C-alpha cells in the first residue's frame, strides 16, 4: 500500500432535491490524498461539503461517483476492512439515553467485532476522563461528557485513522485541552487524524496539512506553513512619537490604516515593496518612530482570500 491513509478520486455526491427543489451537487469531483501519520485539517465555509465528505468516509452517506480508499482498502471492494480502519467522532450529540458510557462502548465494540478479551473499555473511559461516570446513564451526562463519550466510541476498534467533525464547537477550555492532548498523544502513537474546525487558529496550531473546500471542490491543499506563506500581504505597524500628520505620501499600492491606539498600519505587497521603502516614507513625513513591528498573514487571511471569491458559474 502507499503511504496514504486516505485516497479519494473523483468523488461526487448529489443529493436528490425534494418538494420540487433542484438536486444539490454537494461534492463535485474531489481528489484528495491524506498522508499516514498526519494531522490533517479539512476547512471550508458552511455548506462547503465537509460533513458530506466525512460522512462518506464514515460509510454513513453513499457516494454518487468516484473512489475512496481507506488504509488501502477500496470502500466498494472491501467495505468491512475500510470501515474498520477509521473511527469517526460525529458532530451531533444524540445518543441512546439508557446506555451507560461503559455499555455504550461495549455495544460499539460489539458492532465492530472486537472480541471481549481485547476490549479496552476502562482504558478508553479513563483516557477521555469518564472513568468515574462509567455506570451513569447517558441522559445524566453533560454536553461535554457526551462529547468525551463520542470520542471514546470512535476509538473502541483502535482504528488507524480518527476523524473529528467540529470537535471543539461550543466546548469549554478544559474539554478543548483534553481533546487536543488526546489528539496529539494518539498522533504521536501513529494514528492519522483528520479534523474539521471553524476555529482557524486551532487549525493553524494543530494541523500539518490543510485542504480548503468550497462549493464542493478542493480549492487548495498544502502544508499549513506553505498556505500562510502564499499570502503576499504583510503589515508594518508604527507607533509614532506624537500625533501623526494627516498627509503621508506612500508608495503606490500601500494601504494605510490609522488605528485607535494612534499607531499607523501599512499593508504592502512583499513582492512589490520592501519595509525600508515604507520607513523612508514615514521619515519623509516627519514622523518620529517610537516603536515598530510587523504582522504576518495567518490562516484566516488565506481562508478569506480563497473562499470570498464569487461562486463560479455552474
Ligand atoms: N441530506 C441532504 N439532502 C440534501 N442536501 C443536503 C443534505 N446534506 C447536505 N446537503 C447540502 O449539501 C451541501 C453541503 O453540505 P455539508 O453539510 O456537507 O456542508 P458542510 O461543509 O459540512 O457545512 P457545515 O460546516 O455547515 O456543516 C449544502 O448545500 C447542504 O445544504
From TrEMBL:
The keyword Nucleotide-binding belongs to this UniProt entry's keyword annotation: yes
PANTHER family assigned: ABC TRANSPORTER ATP-BINDING PROTEIN (PTHR42711), ABC TRANSPORTER ATP-BINDING PROTEIN NATA (PTHR42711:SF5)
Any one GO molecular-function label of the UniProt entry: ATP binding
InterPro entries found in the cross-reference section: AAA+_ATPase, ABC_transporter-like_ATP-bd, ABC_transporter-like_CS, ABC_transporter_ATP-binding, P-loop_NTPase
One Pfam family matching this protein: ABC_tran
Name assigned to this protein: ABC-2 type transport system ATP-binding protein
Domain ABC transporter: 6-240
Amino acid at each position: 500500500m502507499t503511504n496514504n491513509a486516505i485516497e479519494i478520486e473523483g468523488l461526487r455526491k448529489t443529493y436528490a432535491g425534494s418538494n420540487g427543489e433542484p438536486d444539490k451537487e454537494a461534492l463535485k469531483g474531489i481528489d484528495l490524498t491524506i498522508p499516514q501519520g498526519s494531522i490533517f485539517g479539512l476547512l471550508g465555509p458552511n455548506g462547503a461539503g465537509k460533513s458530506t465528505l466525512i460522512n462518506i468516509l464514515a460509510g454513513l452517506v453513499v457516494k454518487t461517483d468516484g473512489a475512496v480508499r481507506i488504509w488501502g482498502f477500496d470502500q466498494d471492494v472491501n467495505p468491512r476492512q475500510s470501515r474498520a480502519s477509521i473511527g469517526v467522532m460525529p458532530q451531533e450529540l444524540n445518543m441512546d439515553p439508557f446506555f451507560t458510557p461503559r455499555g455504550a462502548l461495549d455495544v460499539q465494540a460489539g458492532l465492530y467485532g472486537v472480541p471481549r478479551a481485547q476490549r479496552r473499555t476502562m482504558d478508553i473511559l479513563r483516557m477521555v476522563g469518564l472513568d468515574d461516570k462509567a455506570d451513569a446513564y447517558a441522559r445524566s451526562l453533560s454536553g461535554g461528557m457526551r462529547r468525551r463519550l463520542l470520542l471514546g466510541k470512535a476509538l473502541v476498534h483502535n482504528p488507524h485513522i480518527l476523524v473529528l467533525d467540529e470537535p471543539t464547537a461550543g466546548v469549554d477550555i478544559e474539554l478543548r485541552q483534553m481533546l487536543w492532548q488526546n489528539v496529539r498523544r494518539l498522533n504521536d502513537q501513529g494514528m492519522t487524524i483528520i479534523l474539521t474546525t471553524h476555529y482557524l487558529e486551532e487549525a493553524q496550531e494543530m494541523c500539518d496539512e490543510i485542504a480548503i473546500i468550497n462549493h464542493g471542490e478542493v480549492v487548495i491543499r498544502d502544508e499549513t506553513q506553505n498556505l500562510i506563506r502564499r499570502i503576499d500581504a504583510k503589515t508594518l505597524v508604527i507607533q509614532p512619537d506624537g500625533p501623526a500628520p494627516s498627509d503621508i505620501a506612500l508608495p503606490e499600492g500601500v494601504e494605510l490604516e490609522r488605528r485607535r491606539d494612534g499607531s499607523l498600519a501599512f499593508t504592502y505587497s512583499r513582492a512589490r515593496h520592501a519595509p525600508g521603502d515604507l520607513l523612508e516614507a514615514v521619515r519623509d513625513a516627519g514622523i518620529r518612530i517610537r516603536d515598530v513591528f510587523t504582522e504576518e498573514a495567518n490562516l484566516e487571511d488565506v481562508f478569506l482570500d480563497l473562499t470570498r471569491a464569487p461562486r463560479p458559474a455552474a
